[in-house]
Amino acid sequence: MGKVSDLYRQRVAEGRIRPDAAQQSVLPHLDRVLDDIAAAPAPEKRSAWRAFLGVGSPPPAPAARGLYLWGGVGRGKSMLMDLMAEAATVPVRRVHFHEFMQEIQAGLNRARLRGDRDTVRPVAMEVAAKVRLLCFDEMQITDIADAMIVGRLFQVLLEQGVVIVTTSNRVPEDLYKHGLNRQLFLPFIDLIRQRLEVVCLDSQVDHRQGRTAGGQVWFCPADAAAKAAMDGIWDELTGGEGAPRRIEVGGRGFDLPLFAEGVGRAGFWDLCGKPLGPADYLALSRAVQVLMIDAIPRLSASNYNEAKRFVTLIDALYEAKVRLIASGADEPEQLYNEGEGSFEFERTASRLREMQDADWGQQAD
């Protein structure tokens, strides 16, 4: 089994990451997880149905203790998760927590159609049959459907010898805070404390802010030069990687065209040309830490509905302290100069200007 600390030192020597004392302080915890996996006997896998019926060998011993790494945005948690997945020599999956839960919910629906009485166990067993180490990035529980099954899901995975490592912006006790029927979720927090080592990445440096702070984050006009600049920032923040992400809202959802490493990217019409509302934009603001919006047009009576949605979107991003990088037809104050809604847009223009400040949003949790 490799060591995360060795890969970290290698990346520093190559100039691919900047050394950070807080990151270095958590490397032993990541190494400990891989050492524990290497020292533990590999669990004997049974098929989901044989395990469900209790047929075959007894269930494996509980998994080695995992890790819950939490801290503010831009502290390098996702990067450390990447290094852990790379260093592991056992079957590993590194996945965004939201994406994983979507897969689980789809599996539960299939189990219900089969008529399974216990829908969670066979789905969890299918996962356990494929991996020994599950690396979740950005654990956050905002959906009641996820909140009601995640405890049972983790319990079965851990029973089957799967080691779980996850990152989050929140301490475990703040997960699903103020959520509906939260008392039913509290045992999951206890499970995290019992089975995962909880470690805070307490860095004073926001590496993601450092890439944009002091640099240009609003580009106009929205021409080829602006697109090239936006593409360059995207490459810097994500390494050029990215894939569509489904933003779920109350049993429905919409697609964000590109998402990677907490950074989302979409065109104006992707977000404002569709019948989306406050709940959609609030869900989006919870899903991303940085949002890039391409080609914001001039706003007027001719695109009044789209302009109203844009105002609602900016309000949601502003309240959530999401970092905004955008290209537009003009400066914020000149986007909406006449027609119904132009007076009200002055507040949005002011927020867009404030969101360009180098230190804006650094107080986000």
TrEMBL record:
Sample GO molecular function, one term: ATP hydrolysis activity
Any one Pfam family match given in the protein's UniProt record, by short name: AFG1_ATPase
A Gene Ontology cellular-component term: cytoplasm
TM segment ranges: none
InterPro entries: ATPase_AFG1-like, P-loop_NTPase
Domain of life: Bacteria
Keyword terms of this UniProt record: ATP-binding, Nucleotide-binding
Positions in coiled-coil regions: none
Cross-referenced NCBIfam families: ZapE
UniProt name for this protein: AFG1-like ATPase
Organism: Paracoccus haematequi
High-level lineage: Bacteria, Pseudomonadati, Pseudomonadota, Alphaproteobacteria, Rhodobacterales
